[in-house]
Structure formats: C-alpha cells, structure tokens
Amino acid sequence: MTSAVPNFRPLDSKPRFVTRIEDIPQLSDEEKAALQKVTDRFIFRANEYYLSLIDWNDPEDPIRRLIIPNPEELEPWGSIDPSYEEGYTVARGLEHKYDSVAVVLATSCCGGYCRFCFRKRIYMKGHRETARDMTETLRYIQTHREISEVLLTGGDPLVLSTPELDAIIRAIREVPHIRIVRIGSKMPAFYPYRISRDPELLEMFRKYSSRERKLYIMAHFNHPRELTPQALEAIGLLQRAGVQVVNQTPLIRGINDRPEVLVELFQRLSAAGVPPYYVFQCRPTVGNKPYAVPVEEGYGIFETAKSLCSGLAKRARFVMSHRWGKIEVVGLTDVEVIFKFHRAHEKKNCSRIMTFRRNSRAYWLDDYEELTGDHSLWNSL
C-alpha cells in the first residue's frame, strides 16, 4: 500500500510543487534536520502526485530514494560536468556535440529533481546555461545544415506552458533541414496530468508530429512503480496524438539495480508500446556517489535482465555519455572489458572498439587502463 499525501487533488495540468523538506509530514523532525544540510547544497523539488507514490513505511522505497534527499550526497565525489558539456556549448543553452544533433537546454526547471541528476550545475547559483532567448539558437541551427535533429531538454521542457513550448517547436519545425524533434521529459512519470489534462498540449503535438517528421518524447521511467494508470493514460494520449514515445533510464543504486526490476520495467514499457532505448551508466556527477553502480556490475545486471526478456523488451543499449561520445559497454572476458563508440564526436572514433583491463571499482571510462597500447584517446584528455 502506498500512503498518499493528504488533500491531494490533481484537478489541472499544473503540479502542486513541494520545495521544502519541512513540508513533508511523513518525515520525522530528525530526518528533516539531517536532510536540510543536503538541500542547502542540492536543490529539492517534488510534487504531490509523485510523493503520493511513496510507501513511507518502507525506508528503502525506490520512489522515495529517487526524489527524497540522501545525506550521503554530501560525500565528496565526482565533478560538476563529467561529460564536458561545456566544451560542446556553442551558444547559451545550445550544445552541438554530434554533427546531426543539436541539444537545446530549454529550461532549468523540472517537475521534480531526481537526486542522481547529472546536470545539477544548471540549478546552482551562478550557472546560466539555459536558452532564455531562442534567437541565437535558431540562427545557429538554421545556418548548420548538417543538423537534422533537435533535442529539447533541460530541465524538463514540459514544465513550460503550452504556448511557450508551441512557439519553440514551431520555430524549429520551420527550419527545413530539421527532420526530428525530440523532447526529453520525465513529466509522464513525475506528473502525467500535465499531459492528460491539457488538450491544447495534445493538439499541439498532433499539429507538429506528421507522418514524415515525427515528434519524439524521450520518457524517463526509472522504476516500474512509476508506470501508474495515470502514467499509462498519458502515454496512450501521446501516442494517439502521433508522438513516438521511447524510454531511457540510468542504472541507479537502490532503484533499478536488480535484474528483476529492469525486466519488469522493460516488459511493461514494451507492452505499452514504449521501446526501452538507453540504460545509462550513472554519470559521476558531484553528489551522485550513493546512486552509482560500478560499470562492470551494471553491465552484468543489464545483461541478466536482457536475457530474461523477449525480443521487443530487450532493445535497450547500456551506454555512458562520455566527453568523447556515447560509448556502449559490449562485453566482458575474464580479464577485459570491451567498449564501442555508439556515437562519437570525432568521426575517426565512429564504431571504434576499445579494450581495457577489468576494474571492478571503475565507475567511468576514465577509471580504466587501456590494454591495446593505442593511447591516442588518453592523450587527448
């Protein structure tokens, strides 16, 4: 049984945000005092719907772990930008890492802040990275004809009002060489009423998702408990509006780091017509130590889960978003771990295979020692 937040009434498309730990009655005064130290450094934000999914009688509840701060976040570990997004930023809020794809940070807000967020820097004081004015962004996209795909992310673009989001998508759709627009959003999990109770949003999606040029929602369901009837209704409405919905999730300690949990997630998503897309290695971002799983352990969990799924449910790839590109973990031997560039910033690295000496304590590619004797990658650091 889950314990609902008192007086929760999801009457409209706007979530009722909870931004103070002291406003969560299920936490003790001692817990609130300890967690205040965490929220002083890393922002906290939830909403009443998502908090209602927590079983407050279970201290290890995965939804609680996903959204409620953890004192271990203060342990020194990681960096503020482990994937070096700063190095690929060509204008405020615009990243161009791969030739054909532009990434637009449309907002710094989310329906809730995952505790393992890899982009914590955009919520911190002094960081101004979101595209507040789309003029420069659009000019860049218009003049770089190699770009055929735009990913709107942040933050979560579905936090924007429907007219604001409409204006952004319309402007991008007017660029003739843009074929695909993707929207990275956890709102179907965090607050599905944003979709189901806003007919104007669905009509906007229907308008811009044609047979020739689809809109994609890159959903973020991290645990099968998030696939509530409300979430499944929102997915169905998006699909009927012509939107392609796929799912990606990091592999997170205490949330989905057991094969049986990933199996259930993959199978339920596939049954709902939502292909599992990527499972990400948790980025070694500051504050993420309690949520990270070592690479080789994560690969074992992922492969075990895939072995228990039917073909439709095993389409995901286990990858890390490294500074050099999207790198897939493809195999282990007794002494080696094998990686492959799924996508590379430099064309010379496309589809490149890399072999490293196994290291059970490695959380990121940088923790490995290359076996091949070709140190060109390391020399580029």
Give a written overview of the molecule.
Helices cover 27% and strands 20% of the residues. The protein has 381 residues and is of the alpha/beta class. The protein has 2 domains: 17-74, no CATH class; 85-379, TIM Barrel, CATH 3.20.20. The longest helix is centred in the C-terminal third of the chain and has 13 residues, at 259-271. The termini are far apart.
SSE diagram, text form:
Elements: E1 17-18, H1 29-39, E2 46-47, H2 48-51, H3 62-67, E3 89-91, E4 94-98, E5 101-105, H4 134-143, E6 149-153, H5 162-173, E7 180-185, H6 187-190, H7 193-196, H8 199-208, E8 215-219, H9 229-240, E9 244-251, H10 259-271, E10 276-281, H11 295-307, E11 317-322, E12 325-332, E13 336-344, E14 353-357, H12 376-379
Parallel strand pairs: 5-6, 6-7, 7-8, 8-9, 9-10, 10-11
Antiparallel strand pairs: 1-2, 3-4, 4-5, 11-12, 12-13, 13-14
Helix pairs in contact: 5-8, 10-11
Q: Number of helix segments? A: 12
List unreliable stretches of 5+ residues: 1-11
Beta-strand residue percentage: 15-25%
Radius of gyration: 20 Å
Mean pLDDT: 92
Shape: globular
CATH superfamily of the largest domain: Aldolase class I
> What is the domain total for the residues?
2
CATH class of the largest domain, please?
Alpha Beta
